[in-house]
Structure formats: structure tokens, C-alpha cells
């Protein structure tokens, strides 16, 4: 009985903790890598066949036995089932996954729905690290890493490991393409290329070349998310954004009947804004919150202050100094409205009680100074307020003040 049990169980360790420590092994041959990569594809293909997005592919979640013949992917803590009638899910506006390995669409900062191609991006980063012993994007600053996933192109793996053939460079970088439609569309398509490379590299050497993705295709029909026919409007919005980066203030109004695609149009320009390190804040005016003062501003700015809190202690202290320098001893006016801001600048002293009108004037003045401190040429702020027909009166008055000033 015990003998049978021993035959059934295999000791597996992660790529990091295995005896060979594959991620610190500069002697790993290309053939050894290809064997491991193909087996990773087999494991991920099995997961995707169950309509699952893993969402946390990384070396720590890949188990391997001593001789590298068995590989399994583990840890389904944040995995998601795809609806059989839908090929995508809408990503939350929060970050899920392990930051050095997440796809752009998992950052919650780009207008792209999530599907199984997100796992292929993370697998690309894992392969990159396995081949080079380095991650493509390195930073202690979480926001720098997010920006890298969204906007920066990784250097070729062969820059760090000259043994890597150009065709393998191309495979890894294709996996790590920012737009999902430019990546491999399926694990099976990726595996086909890896197997072909493994079978032919001995004969053709590192100069081997072939067309990638010849047998790569989506298993199900997918509606493209690209917006068509709005090039002129997109150009106008991006032109306004360019002026903002030069120190100007711009206001744009997008009008149209319900369902015509106003929100989609604005979301289309979100990625170019983020690529230039801009802050893209969104707030949705709600019909049943018209009696809640500044509700749309609270919604929009809480995301910004959450980002601040994710930065390093040095950056938080720097922002604290800049903010308090701008608004002086009146910080309590804004920290009462934005509790997350208080976590950045610390607890503030109470202020003198004023009449309602004087109190509103003081808030307008302090908030405008806060906005000037936060928005710079290097980090401009774009504020998108949706469904303006439901805006609360206090928010409308604040908008008027900011426009005039």
C-alpha cells in the first residue's frame, strides 16, 4: 500500500525553490528552457480549457520536479471563471495579481477587458526571467512598475543572455505585447512555435527563423474593443491633453444621446494619457446622489489618493511636503472630504467655524490650491466626469470656480 502511494506522489518545488533554482541558473541551455516552456504551456492549456483565467502566473506558482519532467501551475486564489457566453470579463478598477508579472489590463488603469491572454503576458515575463535570470521591469516603486507594464517596451532577452536566438527573442516579446490582440491568442499557438523551435534548432542553429503564430487563433469569436470612426474626436481630445502637458488648462464637453459611445470615446484616450505619466481620474454623477455634496469629486479623487499611498515612504513624504506647502494650515478643509488624503498628510488641526457661504469659498480656494500642487507638467491630471446631467449642486459650483480661476 505505501509503495503504491509513493508511486502516486511526486515531490514538486517552485522554479525558485527547486534544488536547481532555475531562476538563478545561468547555465540553463536553450533546449532545457524549451522543455520547461512546453510543459508550462501544457499546464496552462489545461487551465484555460476549463474556462479559467489564472491571473497570477509567476515562477513561485509553477511547480517542477527534480529532473524537470513534470510541471504544474498552482495557486488559484484570484483566478476567475469565464462565462461560456462571454469571452471577456470587465476588469475591476483595482490591481489584482503580483505586480512584477501582471498584464496591463490587470492594473485597472487601461480600458481593456480581461481574458485568458492576460495569462500569456505573465507567462512571457516568467519565460523572460527564466532565460535571463532578470525581470524585464525592475523598480521598488509600484507606480513605476505599473507604468512600465502599460507603456514601456522590454529590452530583448538576448541583451542579457547572448545564447538566446533572435526567434526566441521574438516569441517572448510577442507574449509581452501591450495590446492583447498583438500577443499570442492561445496557449496552443504558443506551444506550436516552441515545439517547432525545439525540434529544429539543433539542425538550423541560432539563425533559425520562421513565421510566428501560423497556427495561433482564438478559440471563440471575440468582438474587438477598438473604437472605429472616431479618429477626429480622439485627435481633438489628445490635442487638448497635449496643451495640458504644456501648462495650460483645458475643458472639453462631449455631448450626445444615451448609448452613442461618449464614455467609450473618453476611455479610448486613457492609455495615451497614462503612457505620458498623466493621472486619469474618473467620477460618475449619479441621479440618486444629487443631495450628496461633492459626491463625484470624492469618487474621482479617492483613486488618486489610493495611488499615493501605494508609493514609497520617501515619495509619500515628498507629496506631504508639497501639499502642505500649497494649502498651509487649511488642510483640514480637504481632509474632511477626502479621508484618504489625511493618511498622506497626517491629522490636521480643526479650523475656525465660518458661515456656509464663507465656508464654501474657503473650500473652493483650498481645493484649487491642492489641485495646482498635484497637477504638474510632468504629471498632469485629466478629470473625466460622466453623466453630468446628474451632477450635484456643490460639485457644479466647484467646477464653475475652477473654470473661472
Describe what you observe in this structure.
- The chain has helices at 2-8, 30-49, 117-132, 142-151, 166-175, 187-204, 231-245, 262-268, 270-275, 295-309, 313-327, 331-335, 339-345, 356-374, 393-404; strands at residues 13-14, 52-53, 62-64, 71-73, 80-81, 279-284, 381-386.
- The chain has 405 residues and is mostly helical.
- The chain has 2 domains: 2-207, Transferase(Phosphotransferase) domain 1 (Transferase(Phosphotransferase), domain 1, Orthogonal Bundle); 277-404, no CATH class.
- A 3-stranded antiparallel β-sheet has the order 1-3-4.
- Helix 10 (295-309) runs parallel beside helix 13 (339-345).
How are the SSEs ordered, and which strands pair?
Elements: H1 2-8, E1 13-14, H2 30-49, E2 52-53, E3 62-64, E4 71-73, E5 80-81, H3 117-132, H4 142-151, H5 166-175, H6 187-204, H7 231-245, H8 262-268, H9 270-275, E6 279-284, H10 295-309, H11 313-327, H12 331-335, H13 339-345, H14 356-374, E7 381-386, H15 393-404
Parallel strand pairs: 6-7
Antiparallel strand pairs: 1-3, 2-5, 3-4
| Gap between N and C termini | 82 Å
Class from helix and strand fractions: mainly alpha
H/E series: HEHEEEEHHHHHHHEHHHHHEH
Structural Rg: 25 Å
Please name the fourth-level CATH homologous superfamily of the largest domain.
Transferase(Phosphotransferase) domain 1
Strand order of the largest sheet: 1-3-4
> Uncertain spans, ≥5 residues at pLDDT below 50?
none
Amino acid at each position: 500500500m505505501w509503495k503504491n502511494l509513493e508511486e502516486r506522489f511526486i515531490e514538486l518545488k517552485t522554479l525558485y525553490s527547486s534544488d536547481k533554482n532555475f531562476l538563478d541558473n545561468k547555465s540553463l541551455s536553450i533546449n532545457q528552457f524549451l522543455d520547461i516552456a512546453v510543459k508550462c504551456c501544457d499546464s496552462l492549456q489545461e487551465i484555460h480549457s476549463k474556462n479559467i483565467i489564472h491571473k497570477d502566473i509567476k515562477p513561485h506558482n509553477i511547480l517542477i520536479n527534480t529532473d524537470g519532467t513534470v510541471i504544474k501551475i498552482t495557486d488559484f486564489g484570484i483566478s476567475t471563471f469565464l462565462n461560456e457566453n462571454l469571452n471577456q470579463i470587465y476588469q475591476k478598477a483595482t490591481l489584482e495579481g503580483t505586480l512584477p508579472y501582471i498584464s496591463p489590463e490587470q492594473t485597472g488603469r487601461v480600458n481593456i477587458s480581461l481574458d485568458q491572454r492576460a495569462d500569456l503576458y505573465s507567462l512571457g515575463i516568467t519565460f523572460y526571467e527564466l532565460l535571463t535570470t532578470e525581470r524585464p521591469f525592475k523598480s521598488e516603486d509600484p507606480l513605476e512598475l505599473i507604468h512600465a507594464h502599460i507603456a514601456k517596451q522590454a529590452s530583448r532577452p538576448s541583451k542579457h543572455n547572448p545564447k538566446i536566438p533572435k526567434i526566441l527573442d521574438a516569441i517572448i516579446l510577442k507574449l509581452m505585447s501591450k495590446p492583447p490582440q498583438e500577443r499570442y491568442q492561445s496557449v496552443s499557438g504558443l506551444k506550436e512555435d516552441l515545439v517547432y523551435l525545439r525540434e529544429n534548432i539543433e539542425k538550423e542553429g541560432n539563425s533559425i527563423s520562421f513565421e510566428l503564430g501560423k497556427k495561433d487563433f482564438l478559440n471563440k469569436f471575440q468582438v474587438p474593443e477598438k473604437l472605429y470612426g472616431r479618429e477626429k474626436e480622439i485627435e481633438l481630445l489628445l490635442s487638448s491633453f497635449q496643451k495640458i502637458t504644456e501648462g495650460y488648462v483645458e475643458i472639453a464637453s462631449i455631448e450626445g444621446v444615451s448609448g452613442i459611445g461618449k464614455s467609450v470615446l473618453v476611455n479610448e484616450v486613457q492609455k495615451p494619457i497614462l503612457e505620458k505619466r498623466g493621472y486619469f481620474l474618473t467620477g460618475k454623477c449619479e441621479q440618486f446622489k444629487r443631495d450628496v455634496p461633492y459626491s463625484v469629486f470624492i469618487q474621482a479623487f479617492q483613486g488618486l489618493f489610493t495611488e499615493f499611498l501605494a508609493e514609497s515612504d520617501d515619495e509619500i513624504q515628498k507629496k506631504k511636503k508639497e501639499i502642505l506647502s500649497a494649502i498651509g494650515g487649511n488642510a483640514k478643509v480637504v481632509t474632511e472630504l477626502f479621508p484618504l488624503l489625511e493618511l498622506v498628510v497626517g491629522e490636521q488641526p480643526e479650523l475656525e467655524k465660518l458661515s456656509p457661504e464663507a465656508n464654501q469659498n474657503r473650500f473652493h480656494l483650498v481645493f484649487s490650491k491642492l489641485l495646482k500642487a498635484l497637477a504638474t507638467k510632468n504629471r498632469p491630471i485629466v478629470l473625466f466626469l460622466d453623466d453630468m446631467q446628474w451632477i450635484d449642486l456643490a460639485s457644479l459650483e466647484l467646477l464653475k470656480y475652477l473654470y473661472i480661476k
